[in-house]
Amino acid sequence: MRNTTVLISGASVAGPALAYWLRHYGFAVTVVERAPALRPGGQAIDFKGRTHRTVLERMGVLEDIEQRRTGTTDTVFVDEQGTRLALMSGDFTGGDVEILRGDLAEIFYRRTADHCEYLFGDSITALTENADGVYVEFEHADARTFDLIFGADGIHSRVRRLAFGPERDFVKYLGYYYAVAGASPWSGRTTGPRERVTAHAHNAPGRLAISGGPKAQQMYMFASPELDYGRDDSAAQRRILAETYAEVGWEVPRMLTELAGFDDFYMDTISQVRMPDGYTKGRVALVGDSGYGNTLGGFGTGLAVVGAYVIAGELASAGGDHTVAFARYDEIMKRYAKIAGNSNAGRFLAPKTARGIRMRNWFFGSRLFALMTKYSDNAANDIDLKDYPALVAAANAR
Questions:
Q1: How many whole angstroms separate alpha carbon 292 and alpha carbon 342?
Q2: pTM metric for this prediction
Q3: How many C-beta atoms surround the C-beta of residue 398 within 10 A?
Q4: What is the largest CA-CA distance in the chain?
């Protein structure tokens, strides 16, 4: 086997999933994560269809995920007086199985922690590819050389910036921001009933506010030109929300008052990653949102887990030859990841005009919505998924 030492940046979902498969095939894996520990809770994420289920079954984690799944949440859209206008079914938003991001990361981490090296509270500062591999400098740890580097560090990927170029060249802003605040109602729950609950949402032109949703106690989405603020400046982000929603009625004044009391708060752009020349360069590859992310597009978690499965399987099938494996990975995922480029959650959920809001509400009750749901299910399975574990085992037995 060639190229046996690998470094993965990111310990959310794509990173530990990739670590599992690479370690399974005999690679020596190090994972670096800038957070001091695994992030608990987080937004609710989902899997849908036989392809996602097959990968999770082959990882041996499907039962664990089922045990920690969240309930199903229907979202009722209301006017300023609270009168019901439309329903977005939780069967559409939650896929076949929904789980908190932090819970999924913990499941994957437990499967890899004893066999992979994790460096928490650290990050990559420089990558230099040479004849022997990639020389990596860290913020805290001593510099080391690895055979291969994988960026699984999200839509604002540092690995992508260091290896491919600045973020502005690959991340397209889609005209909206979103924010979540307050722990999901299922945070901290490891067992219990999978009840069906209801969230309530209200639109003003170009703005959406949701109370009691599955991703957090509060969620906001709003249209805006790109804003200038620090990504880690929570106070500035809260002020932006307060100003943007100052004249919105319904329960929004109450929500904004409560916002100051939530420690868990996150705000970011709705953006799409576009990598026209592929997800690999030399000895570096991108997996998950760093390569094909589309914020709140509905396919990110499944794409990350499938992408990790594919690149590890192709690498093992090629005997560690990254030039062969990376080319195959680019070809396979470029086709499959197209599903991430067909949506803009902001434009759909926060239309910019009153007429757009009325049309969206009508759409939820129409046959077209059922067709969109069916397309979503079909797209999630639109890949010829190889049985890499069996292929690699057969090759090693010869």
A1: 12
A2: 0.92
A3: 4
A4: 71
